[in-house]
Design a protein that fits this description.
Elements lengths: L1 H4 L32 E4 L5 E2 L1 H11 L3 E12 L30 E12 L4 E5 L6 H12 L3 H10 L9 E2 L31 E4 L5 E3 L12 H9 L3 E4 L11 E3 L4 E4 L3 H6 L15 H12 L1 H5 L24 H10 L3 H8 L2 H6 L9 H13 L21 H7 L14 H14 L13 E9 L5 E8 L2 E3 L9 H17 L12 E3 H9 L2 E8 L4 E11 L5 E6 L2 E3 L5 E3 L3 E3 L3 E3 L29 H9 L4 H10 L5 H11 L25 H9 L4 H10 L4 H10 L30 E11 L7 E8 L2 E6 L2 E4 L10 E6 L3
Parallel strand pairs: 6-11, 14-18, 15-21
Antiparallel strand pairs: 1-2, 1-3, 3-4, 4-5, 7-8, 7-9, 9-10, 10-11, 12-13, 12-17, 16-17, 18-27, 19-20, 22-23, 23-24, 23-27, 24-25, 25-26
Helix pairs in contact: 10-12, 12-13, 17-18, 18-19, 20-21, 21-22
C-alpha cells in the first residue's frame, strides 16, 4: 500500500456537481469494453484508454486510476422466451418505437475493477476492505454516480423528448365550443365538402368534419379542414378513427402549426356526444401513415438500399457512427467532411500534436474532440464486421463528447431533436473558424466568392458586389421536370384511388424528374428587383439582379432546396428526382466583373428618406410568426398595399436565402451606422488584457457576442490591429480573390447526403461516399458496399475539383 499511500493527497471524492467521464476515453473511443479497458483518474474523473493514460500521467502527475474492464456475454434465449416483434411507431431510427439498427441479441455485462498507480502500474484489486477510506469512497462514488453523459441526457430530456413528443396545446385551455346541436356518430363519417370517408378531421369548436391535407404525391385529402380553419380560425381538430379509449388521438393545432396534446380531449369530444371510453382506433395515425408509405416504396427503402443484400465492409475510413438519438444528421455530415484532405491533414495527421497541446479540459476543447473523431474514423481501430451487420456493438464509434460540445448552448443542436444537415454543416464551419486560432482552416476548401450584378433597367448602368459562401444553394424548378404529364396523371389516379378506397401499387410512385443543370440554370437566372434605388436616377425603379461565382472552390457543396412550404404555410419536402452527374462543369457560372462596355452606377450623393411602413400590417405579419426583417421587406416591396399582398409576397419569398436577413432599404446600402460596443462585454475583454481597439473591433465583428469576440481575437491575430478598410470587397466593383482558392470549374462527385421523411425535423439521414472507386453507404453504425447509390435523391452533394 506504500505507493498508493504516497498519492492519497491527489484523490478526490466526486460530488453531485462533478462530471464523471466513466464511459469513454477523452482522446479516443476506447471504452470499458475495449481490450485494455478504461482508466478513470481519481483526481479529475477523466477517462483514458491504454494509449493515453500514461501520457496523461506524465503531463499532470495525477497517478491514481480506477481501471474498469467490462465483458459481455450473450444471453441465449429459447424461441418461446422471445417476445413479440416490436411495432414501429415513430419516424426515427435507433430510438424507442423507431426503426432499430441493433440486432435482437441480448447480453449480460460484468465489470471488474482495479486500482492502478502510475508510473509503476502497481495494481490493487477492488473491492478491497484494506484500501484507504478515501479511495473506497472515491471509487464507490464513481461506480454509483451517473456519468457525465447520462447527466446531460437527463437535462436534454427534461420536458421534451427528441422532437416527436407533442406539446400541450395553448388553445385547449379556453377552447371555444359552439352550441351547434351536432352529435357525432361512432362510425359512418364523411367529409362535409366532398365524398372522402377517410383522413377526416373533427373540428373541436363547431363539430364540422372535413378531410385533411393533400400531400405532394396526391395522397391525403382535399385540404377542406385547412380551408375551414382559414375561414373560421377555429384552431383544434382531432383525426377521427385515431381516438382510443385511453384518451389518445391525433390532435392538430392549426394556430400552432403542429401536432399537439389536448388534455381536455374527453370533455371536448363529449360536447359533440362522443364517449371516448367507447371509441376504438380504426384508422392509421399520421406517423403510422408516413411510416407505411416510406417503408413500402418511399425514400426510406431506396436511400437505405433496403432491397439489396448489402455486404458490410470495414477498415480505415470505413468506420460507422452510433446514432445518439436523432444524431444521424451529424453522423452523415462528419463522415463526408472527413473525406476532404484539409480535414484529414488538420485533425487526423496532427491528432497527436493536438492532444499533446490540449488544455487541462480536453472534454471542452473543440480541436481535441475533432481530432478524436477524425482519428476514430480513420484509424481502423474501431471498424470491424460483427456477426451481424445490424449489431451496433460490433462496429463503429459513439461520438457523444463531440455531439455534446458542438451543440453546447445551441438552441437546436443541443437537443435530441432531428435537425437539418445543411444548417448543421454551416454551424460546424462557424465553430471551426472560431477555433482555428491562427492554424490552417480546413473550411477554406469550400469557401468561394459570389458575384452579385445589379443592373438599373432604366439607365442600364450596373453595380457589382461580392460576398462569401461555403455552399451553393440551388432552387428546384418543378416546371422544368421532364415527366410533368406522367406526374399529373399519377396524382389524378392517386386522388381517384383515395376516393374509391383503393390502394395504389407500391411501385407506382412517379416523382418529377429534373436535371441538375436545370437547377444551376435556375440559380443563374436574373430576377427583377422592384423599388430599386438607382443612383443614376436618384429615384426608385426596377432592376435586374443575377449571381455568379467569381471563384471556384477546391470542393463544391451543392444544397438542393427541397424543403419548402405549402400554401397553408406548413413545411413540406419536395419528393423529386434530380439527375446529378458523376462529372460536372460549372464554368458557365464564372463571374466576369465589370466589362469594358458596362458603365457603373455612380456613388450615392443624397441618401433617400427612410421608407414609411404600415405599422398595423407589420404587426399582423409578426403575429403570424414571421421575422421582423422579412415583414419589413414584404410591406416595402408591396408598397404598403395591405396585408393580403404582403402575405403573398412572404409566401413567394419565404425560401429565399436572405429571407430573414436584415432589411436595408434601397439607397441605404452603404450607410454605416455607428457601432456601440456592449459595456459589460467591453469591460470583460479589457480585463483580460486586450486593448480598447482590439475589444471594440472584435465585438463589432461578432455583433456584441462577448464569448465569440474573445475567440475572434485569437483567431484573427494577424488582422486584429489593422486599420479597417474604407472600401471593403463586399461593396467593391473588383473582387478580392487573394484569400480564396480558385481553379477550373470541372468537378467529380465525391459524396452525397440524403434525407428520408417529409420534414427536416423528422426522418433519417444517410450518406454515400466514393472511396477507392467504390460507392459505400454509411447508415449510422452500418457501413456497407452500395449496389445502387441513389444519386438522384440526394440533399447535399460534395463535388471535388478535377485536377488537370
Amino acid at each position: 500500500m506504500e505507493i498508493l499511500n504516497e498519492n492519497l493527497k491527489q484523490i478526490k471524492i466526486p460530488t453531485s456537481s462533478d462530471n464523471i467521464y466513466s464511459e469513454e476515453c477523452v482522446f479516443s473511443y476506447d471504452t470499458p469494453e475495449s481490450d485494455d479497458g478504461l482508466y478513470i483518474s481519481l483526481t479529475s474523473f477523466l477517462s483514458f484508454g491504454r494509449d493515453y493514460v500514461e501520457r496523461y500521467y506524465q503531463k499532470t502527475k495525477n497517478a491514481v486510476f480506477l481501471h474498469i474492464k467490462r465483458t459481455k456475454t450473450e444471453i441465449i434465449q429459447a424461441d418461446s422466451e422471445e417476445g413479440p416483434e416490436k411495432k414501429i411507431t415513430r419516424l426515427a431510427i435507433g430510438l424507442e418505437g423507431g426503426l432499430q439498427d441493433n440486432s435482437t441479441k441480448k447480453y449480460n455485462y460484468d465489470d471488474t475493477y482495479q486500482i492502478v498507480v502510475f508510473p509503476s502500474q502497481t495494481k490493487y484489486p477492488f473491492p478491497n476492505e484494506n484500501l484507504p477510506a478515501i479511495v473506497l469512497e472515491s471509487v464507490n462514488a464513481i461506480i454509483t454516480s451517473d456519468s457525465a453523459f447520462k447527466k446531460l441526457e437527463k437535462e436534454q430530456l427534461s420536458g421534451t423528448w427528441d422532437g416527436e413528443m407533442r406539446q400541450i396545446s395553448a388553445c385547449a385551455l379556453d377552447l371555444q365550443q359552439l352550441e351547434t346541436g351536432k352529435k357525432i356518430p361512432p362510425t359512418g363519417w364523411k367529409c362535409e365538402k366532398c365524398d372522402l370517408t377517410n383522413n377526416l378531421w373533427l373540428n373541436l369548436t363547431d363539430g364540422s368534419i372535413m378531410c385533411g391535407r393533400r400531400f405532394f404525391d396526391g395522397t391525403g385529402g382535399n385540404d377542406h379542414a385547412v380551408h375551414h380553419y382559414q375561414a373560421t380560425k377555429y384552431p383544434l381538430a382531432v383525426k377521427l378513427g385515431t381516438i382510443t379509449a385511453d384518451g389518445k388521438a391525433d390532435v392538430y393545432s392549426y394556430a400552432e402549426d403542429d401536432m399537439v396534446i389536448d388534455p381536455y380531449l374527453q370533455q371536448h369530444l363529449m360536447h359533440f356526444g362522443i364517449n371516448i371510453f367507447q371509441m376504438e382506433k380504426t384508422e392509421k395515425s399520421m406517423v403510422e401513415m408516413e411510416l407505411e408509405y416510406n417503408q413500402h416504396f418511399g425514400e426510406w427503402a431506396v436511400l437505405q438500399e433496403s432491397s439489396g443484400n448489402l455486404l458490410p465492409i470495414a477498415g480505415p475510413g470505413l468506420t460507422g457512427m452510433t446514432n445518439l438519438g436523432n444524431s444521424c444528421y451529424l453522423n452523415s455530415v462528419m463522415q463526408v467532411m472527413f473525406r476532404v484532405p484539409d480535414f484529414v491533414e488538420r485533425y487526423v495527421k496532427k491528432a497527436d500534436e493536438i492532444f499533446n497541446a490540449s488544455p487541462s479540459d480536453p472534454v471542452n476543447d473543440f480541436n481535441v474532440q475533432m481530432a478524436k473523431l477524425g482519428h476514430g474514423l480513420w484509424s481502423g481501430k474501431y471498424s470491424s464486421i460483427g456477426e451481424s451487420s445490424l449489431d451496433t456493438g460490433a462496429t463503429g464509434i459513439k461520438p457523444t463528447m463531440f455531439k455534446n460540445l458542438i451543440g453546447k448552448n445551441h438552441p437546436d443542436f443541443s437537443t435530441k431533436q432531428q435537425q437539418d444537415a445543411q444548417e448543421f454543416l454551416l454551424h460546424l464551419f462557424t465553430v471551426i473558424e472560431r477555433n482555428s486560432h491562427g492554424q490552417s482552416n480546413p473550411t477554406d476548401s469550400f469557401k468561394f466568392q459570389i458575384e452579385d450584378r445589379v443592373e438599373c433597367l432604366s439607365s442600364n448602368k450596373v453595380k457589382y458586389s461580392y460576398r462569401d459562401e461555403y455552399l451553393l444553394p440551388l432552387p428546384i424548378p418543378l416546371e422544368s421536370a421532364t415527366n410533368l404529364d406522367d406526374v399529373r396523371k399519377y396524382e389524378e389516379e392517386k386522388i381517384a384511388a383515395e376516393r374509391e378506397g383503393r390502394k395504389m401499387p407500391d411501385d407506382s410512385l412517379i416523382r418529377p424528374k429534373l436535371s441538375l443543370k436545370s437547377c444551376l440554370e435556375k440559380f443563374a437566372e436574373p430576377e427583377n428587383v422592384e423599388q430599386f434605388y438607382s443612383t443614376a436616377l436618384n429615384d426608385k425603379t426596377t432592376a435586374s439582379k443575377r449571381a455568379r461565382l467569381s471563384t471556384m472552390p477546391d470542393y463544391l457543396i451543392l444544397h438542393l432546396k427541397k424543403f419548402t412550404l405549402r400554401e397553408d404555410w406548413t413545411s413540406v419536402k419536395l419528393d423529386v428526382s434530380v439527375d446529378c452527374p458523376d462529372e460536372l462543369d460549372i464554368s458557365f457560372l464564372r463571374g466576369t466583373g465589370l466589362l469594358p462596355n458596362e458603365e457603373e452606377l455612380p456613388e450615392m450623393k443624397n441618401r433617400p428618406p427612410s421608407p414609411q411602413m404600415d405599422a398595423e400590417v407589420l404587426l399582423s405579419l409578426q403575429d403570424m410568426g414571421f421575422p421582423l426583417d422579412a415583414c419589413k421587406k414584404a410591406v416595402f416591396f408591396t408598397k404598403n398595399t395591405g396585408l393580403e399582398n404582403a402575405t403573398n409576397w412572404i409566401m413567394q419569398h419565404i425560401t429565399d436565402d436572405d429571407f430573414s436577413s436584415p432589411f436595408v432599404p434601397p439607397g441605404h446600402e452603404n450607410v454605416q451606422k455607428e457601432f456601440i460596443p456592449d459595456e459589460e462585454g467591453l469591460a470583460m475583454i479589457l480585463s483580460m488584457g486586450f486593448t480598447m481597439k482590439q475589444a471594440t473591433k472584435a465585438l463589432k465583428a461578432t455583433n456584441n457576442n462577448t464569448e465569440r469576440a474573445v475567440d475572434y481575437i485569437f483567431s484573427h491575430k494577424d488582422e486584429i490591429d489593422m486599420e479597417d478598410e474604407e472600401n471593403p470587397a463586399s461593396s467593391s466593383t473588383a473582387p478580392n480573390t487573394k484569400q480564396y482558392r480558385d481553379g477550373n470549374g470541372k468537378y467529380r462527385l465525391k459524396a452525397f447526403i440524403s434525407h428520408m421523411g417529409t420534414s427536416s425535423q423528422v426522418g433519417h439521414y444517410v450518406c454515400h461516399i466514393l472511396k477507392d472507386d467504390q460507392w459505400i453507404i454509411f447508415n449510422d453504425s452500418k457501413v456497407q458496399i452500395s449496389q445502387r447509390p441513389p444519386k438522384d435523391l440526394g440533399y447535399l452533394y460534395l463535388y471535388e475539383r478535377i485536377k488537370k
